[in-house]
Amino acid sequence: MRIDVFSIFPEYLAALDLSLIGKARQDGILDVRVQDLRAFTTDRHRTVDDTPYGGGAGMVMKPEPWAEALSTALSGGTAEGESGAGERPTLIVPSPAGEVFAQATAYELAEKQQLVFACGRYEGIDERVLEWAGENFDVRPMSLGDYVLNGGEVAVLAMVEAIGRLVPGVVGNPESLVEESHSDGLLEYPVYTKPSLWRDRPIPEVLLSGNHAKIARFRRDEQLRRTAERRPDLIAKLNPSTLDKADRAALEALGWTVTAEAVLPR
Ligand code: 6GU
Fold first, then answer.
1. CB of 95 sitting under 6 A from ligand 1
2. Is 94 in the pocket of ligand 1 (CB under 6 A)?
3. Which of 114, 169, 186, 228 is the most exposed place for a label (fewest CB within 10 A)?
4. How far is the CA of 263 from the CAs of 184, 222, 259, in angstroms?
């Protein structure tokens, strides 16, 4: 997968040299290209922003450097060939005004040949850049959630990690991707390691039983309990057809009603 990132603070993206993503780059699985947006300016001051038409606080990113930068992402080849073998690259524009990025988004984007990230700063990028880019890219304004960051860089680090780890070969043991939070719409169960008794705190006894069916049931009940406690919005989104008899009993005990159509608070 090819990933292009444009930012006026390319140093922010240095973390992509580290850990799993850095290893995947070394191994040639991820082709990550970070570029300084100011390299695409033509004036002496390397200007990337200007005042907003219509007035108001802050500055807006000028369209010209963005057009030059994004045009370079349309050439240079991908693993699939020089022209990217036909698939339009996806242009992700981090913004608190975007669609919320979720695990399902990460799975969807992990299938793409090329992702391009346009990091905005200030009040954002001139809207015409997004319209113009729509001629050559699938444009996706994306938010991490309902809070405001100063720019897109931190959001890009989060999204590239969430997407990159789903690309085949990036995570050594793909089994570890199966049982994790959000993969089945529930939060992960709690985990424990040695010693079995630590500062007067034992681990749940069932984990020492060797009874794998009982352990699986315990973990599933813990997932349901935690999710009901911390993220009731996720419980309300569960599809009843994915719930077995024991799941239904656990949810009833947690104050939910499971009908054929939905899971509802009682
Ligand atoms: Cl993707 N960008 C910015 N600037 N702020 C955010 C965000 C993104 N997601 C949440 N807040």
1. yes
2. yes
3. 169
4. 15, 18, 6
Going from the Cα of 155 to the center of ligand 1, the distance in angstroms, rounded, reads 6
Single-letter code of the amino acid located at 58:
G
141 lines ligand 1 (CB under 6 A): no
Q: Is the CB of 97 under 6 A from ligand 1?
A: no
| 227 Cβ closer than 6 Å to some ligand 1 atom | no
Which of 3, 115, 151, 133 has its CA nearest to residue 68? 133
The residue written with tokens 């899971």 in the block is 263
55 labeled part of a ligand binding site: no
Please give the sequence-ordered ranges of beta strands (E in DSSP) within 108-162, or none if there are none: 114-118, 138-143
Q: Residue 102 has which token pair?
A: 């979720």
**CB 206 within 8 Å of CB 236:** no
Q: Tokens in use for 262?
A: 């939905």
Q: Which two tokens stand for residue 108?
A: 């969807």
| pTM (predicted TM-score) | 0.94
pLDDT tens, position by position, for the chain (266 residues)? 999 999 999 999 999 999 999 999 999 999 999 999 999 999 999 999 999 999 999 999 999 999 999 999 998 877 766 655 579 999 999 999 999 999 999 999 999 999 999 999 889 999 999 999 999 999 999 999 999 999 999 999 999 999 999 999 999 888 888 878 887 899 999 999 999 999 999 999 999 999 999 999 999 999 999 999 999 999 999 999 999 999 999 999 999 999 999 999 99
Q: Per the annotation, does 189 bind a ligand?
A: no
Asked if 21 and 156 touch (Cβ cutoff 8 Å), the reply is: no
Q: How many CB atoms lie within 10 A of CB 82?
A: 9
